[in-house]
Amino acid sequence: MPPATAVKKVTGKSGDLRMFFGGSKPSASSQKSNGSSTAVARSGSSQTLKPTQSQKSAAVAISDDDEPPKPRSLKKSVNALAIDDSDDEAPLKPAPKPKAAPSQAAPSKKRKPAVIESSDDDDITPPPKKQAVTSQANKAKPRPSTASKAKKTDNDGDFDMKASDSSSEDEFVDDDDNEDKPRKPSKKKKLPPPKKASPRKPAADKAKASTSEQGPKPAPKANWAAKAAKLAKGPAAQGSKPIPDGDPNALAGLAFVFTGELTAFAREEAIDMAKRFGGRVVLQPSSKTDYVVLGEDAGPKKMEAIKKHKLKTLDEDGFLKLIATRKVKDSDLDEKTRKKMEKERAEMKKAVKEMEQREKAEQSTSKAGKGIDPKTQLWTTRYAPQNLKEICGNKAPVERLEQWLMDWQGSYKAGFKKPGKNMMNVYRAVLISGPPGIGKTTSAHLCAKLAGYTPIELNASDTRSKKLVENGMNINNSSLDGYIKGTQGGGSGDIPLTDRTCLIMDEVDGMSAGDRGGIGALNAMIKKTKIPIICIANDRNSQKMKPLYSTTFNLSFQKPQVNSVRSRIMTIIFKEGLKIPANVVDQLITGAQSDIRQVLNMLSTWKLSNQSMTFDEGKDMVKMNEKYHILSPFDITSKVLGPYLFSSTARETLGEKMEYYFQDHSFVPLFIQENYLKPTPSRLKNFDGVERQLKELELMDAAASSISDGDLVDALIHGPEQHWSLMPLHAVCSTIRPASSMYGAGAHYGTGNPISFPQWLGQNSKQNKLMRQLGDVQIRMRLKVSGDKNEIRQSYIPALFPHIVKPLVDEGAEAVDDVIQRLDDYFLSKEEWDTIIELGVGANQDEQVLKKITSQAKSAFTRKYNAAEHPIPFHKATDLGKAPKKLAAGGPAPDIEDAFEVDDEVPDDADDDKGKEDQDDVTKDSLIKMPKRKKAAAAGATAAKGKATKPKKA
Amino acid sequence: MSLWVDQYRPRTLDELSYHKSLSERLKSLAASGDFPHMLFYGPSGAGKKTRISCTLRQLFGAGVEKLKIDQRIFLTPSKRKMEINIVQSNYHIEITPSEAGNYDRLVIQEIIKEIAQTQQVDLSAKQRFKVVIINEADSLSRDAQAALRRTMEKYMSNMRIILCANSTSRLIAPIRSRCLLIRVAAPNSEEMSHVLDNVARRAGFTLPEEAAQKIVDDSGGNMRKAILVLEALKMQSPDLNGPLSIAKPDWETYCHKVADMIIAEQSPAQVMAVRSKLYELLSHCIPPTVILKTVAERVVDKVDESLKADVMHWAAFYEVRMRVGSKKIFHLEAWVVKVMSLYKHFFYDIDMSAFD
């Protein structure tokens, strides 16, 4: 080891880039061979490397030499499960540890993993070389420009977590400030040399470093042009900062709250990061929060909370720095945590031992010819809880279930009259509901066994129709013997039945079309049963469950908390010899939404090929097994219009954004249209005053015209030719483009204007309804008026208004006769009068008008109108169809032709009188007389006819 | 006591006071016995329907005024019931296929064919053919128009079709070529004031010159509107002297309110306020094009000279889109936002080149 240091030192001092090429190669390879040999050798290797990079600080390297063993052993004890020295992953973890000397070791330490990691990545020698070279090149002061360029290309070319991990943090910060950050394009060219020099010093002094990194940020704020340039460049800041390669437990025991938008990371990434390094992320700040990470546009509520609780705040860089530099020693953790951890470990060991014993016992029985070898079982069966303690979460409901089963015989004797302390003993059955994979069926079986019952399970694989439930269970049979015999066909197999039998009806909500009447029969059975029945369903609120509400006690199982599942999973992992750290397990559990079964299945699959799992692998795994969940249009809208999806740091591709549209392609565009004006566009944040207003209008204009485009596309899709292949275009025009200009906070984050349901639907159906009614008005007026519907609405209704509505407002009941006369002239009925009122807008709006008409006038109008006969232009076709029925009650049915005759007379009269009219004999105009004649005609006709028409008018 | 506009509607071609030459031609066509399919087109309120009914009377005599209304029920392919109103006399039948919306093709196929296949039963009828009047022909879908083509030729012996439309632009060429196109132009102001005088005389009073002029100016060539306004004015101030204020219809006032809102403030909140007003208008059966036209005209009145052209340009732009698209409000709103943006930019004297 000493010789290696010496060699490196020499090459380092020479300062020639080529020499680095030559010099670094052996170091990488030697390091590699070291890494793959023994643990002892590896501790050496990590030290050999250090000098390689930090030629300058040889002294530091030496001081480092003493450190590593200590933190490593510590690590081992902390991470009992995950540590395995022969493992590839291990060097990564202990490596950062030497950072015990935080100030000066910082730069050197960071370099170390770079090489190790890359050698891990791919086992060919060249890549490590490249890494080493670039990182060293950066170090070389004399050639800053080439160095940084090389660095950058390396970064861009192969950007993933590992690549970023592999380079040191301060280099990156450097890069950010100089190259990647678009804010100050003019400055950066000049700055590199001094900047290059600076980072090392700040790295030595944390406080200084953070200020120096924050320093540049406020500067551009004043510089408007630079800001515009930044805007123009778009989301270049994204990914510009590497995730520092800190201690995997760097953030252990800390609680974080994120607020606002970070520049280089999407919110989810930042949260992931915090979790990756062992931190906890909570949503709302409280006094227990350790740090609040502030981004741009932090929420005002969270700011208040920060002030209130006097919380420490971090900016993005501070957060990264914290990850990079913080170290947790056992002594750092307080007494409580340590004890807790120890206790956990002890418990886990105990559990494992128990499990092993059990398995041994089982194996012995299986050897005796009974049972199944546990090795061949699914993990879910193999590690199914064997006692109540092992059930994760839902302690209270499980206990109540057990208690209820214990008490069942007693309550049966008491006739289900005594409620008991849980109020459960009046029920003959319980209904367990909850999401899948949280142990409902398991708990039911377990409780039944523990309470001394033999469970019989009927699930969706059995037909459970009304007939079969009735016959199979033989519920009408009062004797238990009948029940026993009956169940022979009912799916219970050859389980000997006693009164200590318990029926578990699993997947009750799965009783569907094939099980017609099954629920009803089940319900009937529950009312009479002499054995306890446990029903299990996923969705208690489904319509099918209604009958069971009154007869069963509702036990809802919640998704267990991550902590309660974690220890169990960790035990299993340990038992299986997998090496997966706790934060990865957390990730799996959260990702599977606490579905224990799914986590176990994922792990058992994983074990087939791997022994350990990193955070990112865990994440991929979760993503692969992600349950497809459908978002409501409200959620989609707030997501799409919210500040994150389109922010510069968002990682979603266009396709992923469009996916939101395809979740509900008919509703989402309507929601976007309804709500796109609500957010405060994030794009405005660099504008003020008039500029801001103008920019906002421009954005609105862009969004609105895009929505308009979208409608044209929609017309093509839903038009006669049905171009469904245009849907992606519709997605972009109707949803993505508007949202991309208008996205921002406020659409649902504020309290004032939450996402609202699209008005279009209501307004459209209202329009259709009024259009139809207007059509009725038009056709009734048709005998007198030549105009179409639009003419009626635009000209006649305003013109008729003073004649048929105004008088009622002004004169009240006195005007009723005139109004009715006028209505009759145009063959309008009371219904049409209502329509005309309803069609008014503005000052003539229906409510306002109706308010002004006194109730006396209204009732007088209705009364008088109903008392008299009115001319009608035609019979509704629908009424004609029904006519015989209606008329049967009213008397002899009139000939339909008769009814028409009356109408036919009308134009006839007009015709006859036309001559007079031509002579300008206005007073004798037929149209004025006509209604009287009509009445006469009506009177002349049979009374039945009147009755025939009457019901319609009323 | 009908409104004057209905009461004094001309009933014969001779009574029609303007477009005399057109009336003469119709008269001679009716007399010739070789009556073609016809397409009447022109702005609303120009007298198309009146002219058609006068022509029918000329063809068949007073019998055509004996109207009755019938309702027919159709089952659409999706088993929905559609009601269609049919206005008919012994000699003609009048339908509005656009009542059936997307199913207008069915109406054309079923009713018109059915009518076309039966002969005139009334032996005393003056003509051997029946007449089918198709209202709102310009809102017929392409399918429906195509369905009409063959029927028009095949059943020529039994039936003549009279189409009534506001503009021929939406009618397919084959239909246009099968019809005799008759344009009924809006009356000019002298013709209008003559008609108004005539109505006033028949109603028993004399109309002052000024009032007539004012009404004519307000009506914009719509005869129906002019007579309705005349009656409203007469009700308001019986002597019709002195300063007259013509009451605007409710929807027009409302549209003006919208225009004023656009001018008053340009902000997202204001757009939402405008949107709700536009919804109100749309849902109360004011056609979107009318809304756009009325609002745009009002906006143009209020803005600076240099903006007028742009405002109208965009109004035209979005009117076309409204016709092509299905959700009218989207386009109306896009226009509103566009105008707001234009206005604000103009207000602060910012270059508007980005909008071209």
TrEMBL record, chain A:
GO molecular function: ATP binding; ATP hydrolysis activity; DNA binding; DNA clamp loader activity
Composition bias, Acidic residues: 167-179, 895-912
Cellular compartments per GO CC: DNA replication factor C complex; nucleus
Every BRCT domain range: 246-332
Residue ranges with Basic residues bias: 184-199
GO biological process, one term: DNA repair
Biased composition range(s): Polar residues: 26-57
Protein's UniProt keywords contain Phosphoprotein: yes
Biased amino acid composition, Low complexity: 220-237, 937-946
Predominant place of localization: nucleus
Entry superkingdom: Eukaryota
Keyword annotations from UniProtKB, A to Z: ATP-binding, DNA replication, DNA-binding, Nucleotide-binding, Nucleus, Phosphoprotein
Subcellular location(s) of the protein: Nucleus
Region of interest (Disordered), residue spans: 16-249, 353-373, 876-954
SUPFAM superfamilies assigned to the protein according to its UniProt record, in alphabetical order: BRCT domain, P-loop containing nucleoside triphosphate hydrolases, post-AAA+ oligomerization domain-like
Family: Belongs to the activator 1 large subunit family.
Official protein name in the record: Replication factor C subunit 1
Organism: Coprinellus micaceus (Glistening ink-cap mushroom)
TrEMBL record, chain B:
CDD domains documented for this protein: AAA, HLD_clamp_RFC
Pfam families xrefs: DNA_pol3_delta2, RCF1-5-like_lid, RFC_C
Location within or outside the cell: Nucleus
Domain of life: Eukaryota
Keyword Transit peptide annotated: no
AAA+ ATPase domain mapped to chain residues: 34-187
InterPro entries: AAA+_ATPase, DNA_pol3_clamp-load_cplx_C, DNA_Rep/Repair_Clamp_Loader, P-loop_NTPase, RFC_lid
Tagged with keyword Amino-acid biosynthesis: no
Any GO CC annotation of this UniProt entry: Ctf18 RFC-like complex
Alphabetically ordered keywords of this record: ATP-binding, DNA replication, Hydrolase, Nucleotide-binding, Nucleus
Name of the protein this chain belongs to: Replication factor C subunit 5
